[in-house]
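Same chain as my last thread, 317 residues:
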Amino acid sequence: MVNVSLADAAEEPAAESAAVREVSAARRRRGWRLVAALVLALGAAVMVLPFGDLLLGALRTPAERLMRPPAYWPATPVWGNFTQVFERYPLSLWIFNSLVTTISITCLQVATSVTAGYALAKFRFRGRDLLLRFVLVAQLFPFFLFLIPLVFILRYWPLFGGNDWLGQGGTGLMGTYAALILPFSVSWYGVFLMRQFMIGVPDELLDAARMDGAGEARILWSIVLPIVRPAAATLALFVFVYHWNEVAWTLTVTQSAPSLQTAPIGIYMVRGAFDTEAQLSLQQAMILVTIAPVIAAFLFLQRFYVSAVNGPSRRMG
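reply #2:
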């Protein structure tokens, strides 16, 4: 009995010390979580601050802007600035053109990236490795290098825009939606990204589908695409944001076709023509209106980010 009592007495301090260590570890974890939450909150505030400043600027009156020092908080917010931008400028047309071109480019790039990535990842054919190297090298060249050649190609496109079969006599595809969309129908980065994700799709699934009589199109649509859907959605978001804000090529094409100007081009033209303090509130209101579709797309597709980072193998597991 004495030996048992001594053993119990020895175990009690050890158990108490383990409990103390566990409580201390839990407190440290809560402390680190609190620090992480504060850091994330600070980062979110820094990201949201420019949008808040943009909103306050859009609500100021011209008199408040001309005050010295300027009034930061508008005394009487002018919400009518958001309606005036539609009344004074063809903002509805600019947004419509941006939606048509950006959505078309996004759909084309996702479609070509998915199909080409599937071929490079799951098919074995002569020249596949060489083609993959070409995709990698093509990403090194900026789009500006191809700006002038693309203008000539679209300008002398046969049988369009009044051109004959030799590409003479008219304007070709210049001044059309096709000129804004076709040069961006393929993304080398998108092809490589989808290829990398599709490598993680087990070949056993595809072989089983082929044994059941499924064709390659059915396999891609019913098996591969659902697995890599987060990556495709992430690519779609990147493409949408980039081409919504694209200026260089759109400005080149729409010089002779003002009716095809997009929202960024319209803002650029308005800022160049009316760059005054009195017009700055309208410009900021216009910017807020035009970034609304980008924010909506981001909020709609953000749930795919974590799945895309995890990769197809972890999602299947």
